[in-house]
Each structure stands twice: as C-alpha cells, then as structure tokens.
Amino acid sequence: MIAKTEPDVQTNSGVPVAQFLPEVLKDSLDEKIILIVGGANGIGASLVEICCENGAYVAIGDIDGARGEQVARKCIQQWPVYSDPALPPKPPRAVFQRTDVTDYQSVLDLFENTFKKYKRIDHVVVTAGSTETEAPWFDHALNLSDIRKAPSRKDIDVNLIGTLYVTRIASVFLRHNRGPGVDRSILLFSCAAGFKETPGVSVYQAAKHGVQGLMRSLRNNFSSPYKHSIRINTICPWMTQTGNSFPKKIEDRWAKEGLPISTAQDVARVSAGVMCDDSLNGASMFVAGTRAWEIEGNIDRLESQWLGEEPAQTLAQGQKVLQETLAA
Ligand SMILES: NC(=O)c1ccc[n+]([C@@H]2O[C@H](COP(=O)([O-])OP(=O)(O)OC[C@H]3O[C@@H](n4cnc5c(N)ncnc54)[C@H](O)[C@@H]3O)[C@@H](O)[C@H]2O)c1
User: Which Pfam families match (predicted)?
Assistant: First the structure.
C-alpha cells in the first residue's frame, strides 16, 4: 500500500518514524493538468503557484470569485505559456471557475470545462475547507430552547460532502485520455484533527476523520491497475498561517511554547512533493512547521503493539475474509 518515505528516523522510544522529504520536481509537474478545488486562498493558492512555476496548467475551482480570478491572472502573467506558431495554440497556464464544492452540479461543471479545455486531467487536489468555531454543536450551555434550532452543517458539507463529490467525479475523469503507465492522483486535505482529538471543533473533526476514512477506504481499490489505477493520499496540516488561522490567543500561546507553525508554502511544498512521488499511495503526511511525517505506515506496522498480538491476528484474518468476499 504505502511506499517510500525516507529516511527512517529513530525516536527516543526507539520506534522509527518516517519523515517525508518532499521533492518538487519540474520533470514530474511540467505540462501536467492539475485541478485544485479551494485554490483561491491559503495553502491551495500556494500550491497553484508551485504547480504553475514548474510548468503545469492549473484549473482553480473556488467559491471566492474575486481571489480565484486574481490567482489565475497572476499565474498567467508570471508563468506565460509559449506556443509553437506551427502548432495549435496551447491553453492558458491557469483558469478559474467559480465552484461551490457542496453543489454536485457545480463540481461536475468544473471537471467538464477543465476536460474540454485541457483534454485530460492528471492530478486533483481538494483544499477547500471550513472551520466554524461559533455556536458549537455540543456547547454545554445549550438549553432545551436552543436545541430547537437546527445547527449549521457547513463544516460537514464543505469538508466532507465536498470532498466526496470531488473524489467521485475525479475517479472517472482521471481515467480518460491517459497513456499506458501514466501517473494520476487525488490528494485530499484532512488535518491533525483528522487523527487526534481537538477541543471545540467536533463537527469539523468528524468531517476530517471522514476525509481520512475516505482515503483509507479507497486506497487499495483506486490504486489497482485493473480498476482505477489512481493514487490517493491525504495531507494533515497542523497550525498553519493562512486566512483560516486559529484565534489570536492560541497563536500567541503556540509561539510562547515554541511550537512549530507552518506557512501556506510549507504545506503546499509537501503537497506538491506527494503529487510528484508516484510511489506514494494511501499515505498521510502530518505537517508540523517545515517538516512532514508519514503516519499510516506506522499505524499498520505497529498494530500488534497497540492492539495486542492476538486481536491483531484475528482482525487481520477477518479483514482478509471481508476483502476476498466483498471484492469477489
Ligand atoms: N490553516 C490551518 O491551520 C489548517 C490546519 C489543518 C488543516 N487545514 C486544512 O487545509 C485546507 C486548506 O486550509 P487553508 O488554511 O488554506 O484555508 P483557507 O480558508 O485559506 O482556504 C480554503 C479555501 O476553500 C474555499 N472554500 C470554502 N468553502 C468553499 C466551497 N463551498 N466551495 C469551494 N471552495 C470553498 C475558500 O474560499 C478558500 O479559498 C482546509 O481543508 C483546512 O481544513 C488547515
């Protein structure tokens, strides 16, 4: 399932952990068609720029029309496309289409127009996200009157339903107009809250666990050369300075404790590295500051330690039966 992450680093407990050293390769990105949903701001916008700088063409989908147009314009000006006058003109370096990731038709239109313009899609990334911190669903101060009003579903709709829509549509578009052995991938955005408890953002956290679960549920099926032949991975950023940053009191305390803070570029560089590394499937990169760590490999490798030898063996046997009977 998971391939190369290097090097293995010995921790104090003697357990090796896998630091991921991203390599953003022009050879891997040049002339690629990359669709980024959520590319108008923050980590997504930085990733759009890294891709364009390295010769890729990017279709940006985002609900923020003004910023999306601005990012596309900047890329077109900064990294112009040169066409051979003897050949048909090449498409623009970047295009923007206003897209609401919670609206299936809107996501479908983005893929259809991108495919029409660029004739294929190589990589799809979903960075669109939402974190509502006001009116928490499980506030202990809620009373019998408050719960009569239905709470906001935005964090579930944007983070989880949107990711499900994009992944479903991508799984079909990525299979079209590809030569033999051509790498195609989907990169989803989870969070440290996708694998660790984080207070105050329960609905966001449930959604990000959902993104993580979606990747796990698809990684073997999608990567099969007899089925989709698509890699799927996740990025789990931690504290990252973007428009979507944490409240000031958390940032201040974070800095005081000397904890790592990522920039949008740090996380985008890890994301581009995962996109470029065609050996990575089913991996999740926890990003802390400028560094990234792969987590899925150790969860599998150490199962007999955290679950116990005997239940791990029984679980493996049962999962094998499920795999063989459900896939048959
Ligand atoms: N910033 C952090 O500290 C942090 C930490 C962990 C995980 N993440 C995750 O990383 C991803 C990127 O985060 P960011 O900090 O760059 O966020 P951001 O707010 O800067 O950018 C998110 C983008 O998503 C777009 N978006 C929101 N709702 C949308 C919708 N309905 N349809 C289409 N686009 C929509 C926004 O317009 C924006 O351009 C998110 O999934 C976020 O949950 C961020």
Answer: adh_short
